[in-house]
Amino acid sequence: MIIAGLDVGTSKVTTVIGELAPDGVLDIIGESTVPSQGLKRGVVVNLERTTEAIRQSLFQAERVAGIKVERVVVGVGGPHLKGVTSHGLAAIRRGHTIAEADVERAIEQAKAYPLDGEMELLHALPLEYRVDGQEGIRDPVGMAGVRLEVDVHLVAAGRGPLANLRRAVEGAGLEVEAFVVQALASGLGVLLPEEENMTVLLLDIGGGTTDVAVFKNGRLAHTAVLPLGGEHVTNDIAQLLKIPFEEAERVKRKYGAALPELADPELVLEINQEGGTLGEVPAPELARIIRPRLREILHLARQSVDEALGPLEIRVNRVVLTGGSTLMRGVDLLARQQYNLPVRIGKPQGVSGLTDVVASPAHAAAVGLVRYGATLPVRTPERRVAKRSEEGPKGQGFLAKIKDFLSNLF
Fold this sequence. Notes:
Elements: E1 2-8, E2 12-20, E3 26-35, E4 39-40, E5 43-44, H1 47-65, E6 71-76, E7 82-91, H2 100-110, E8 119-131, E9 134-137, E10 147-158, H3 159-171, E11 175-181, H4 182-190, E12 199-205, E13 210-216, E14 219-226, H5 230-241, H6 245-255, E15 268-272, E16 278-282, H7 283-309, H8 312-315, E17 318-322, H9 331-339, E18 343-345, E19 351-353, H10 355-358, H11 364-373, H12 396-407
Parallel strand pairs: 1-6, 3-19, 6-11, 12-17, 17-18
Antiparallel strand pairs: 1-2, 2-3, 4-5, 7-10, 8-9, 8-10, 12-13, 13-14, 15-16
Helix pairs in contact: 1-3, 4-11, 5-6, 5-7, 7-9
Protein name: Cell division protein FtsA
Membrane topology: Peripheral membrane protein
Function: Cell division protein that is involved in the assembly of the Z ring. May serve as a membrane anchor for the Z ring.
């Protein structure tokens, strides 16, 4: 079975194509990343440019994989997203055990949360069940009781931004198989099996936004989107050093560090200033420009968690950083200083094929989208893409293995 994931971000558009191998491992068989110019803070602002970027990324990934993509799982980001936790209840007839239908009734009641009319529900993710007041139940089916309760994390997106993203994808000749919130996709892409029993704060620091997610016992318990990302760091560099944005981005990528002590004190950078003149800046000074914005992002993420779940240091066991902006040296060390918690950089793992291409924090969401796609029901014999000329196994057994693996992350 072949699945395609499409990560449409502020600074880049990434297409990843994966295939479930006979041993249950996800093989990455196609990838392409191209610059994105039609989005701002994760939202489409220029339909034509966004469509063209998707088309280019898709075409290049198809050439690598040797297939023609028809459907994609698409990541959704941006400040228009809203995550809330709702409560559902279902009464069980005396003498009966809890059935799947009872669980569905409880979840449906939780989904009745009064969202704004301009919002569209993307996910309803059960967190924890209670039977007659007994907490901590992951699967109540078959249990005896008269009162079933469930906490469900709901994630909704603005109808307008979602419709524009769909138009851009369809304009590139694709069908949307599913929309997936970026935070969930990133978690699927980088969380480790050992983190299943932890409470993990995941920050996906992208170009225009930062996705905040808390996974509790492997399930998404909190989501938020901060309107700040790597491009804001670049803007700070450009403004303070009086250099063009493109030059600031180049300097940041090549020499940027989150902490001045990580920069070479002997290194003096030559920069191209506005007006065509050359300037010089010590490497530690560049880090002093970068650090405040990253601190602000980390502070706002902490604030989001504190308000939703309680004090971050008490509720969270580990912090995982991912996204293209975490490629900068010392971001993990800065987070460790600010949170006083274990911190690691999250990279996609447990895949084969083009591992050297996707083994980067920048590919977390795209790989996670492919993994999410593996859990979707098969709609047609062709699934999500046209078959290879030499058609392989149907892959139903392998899909079951992937579903079992991913079940701990939902």
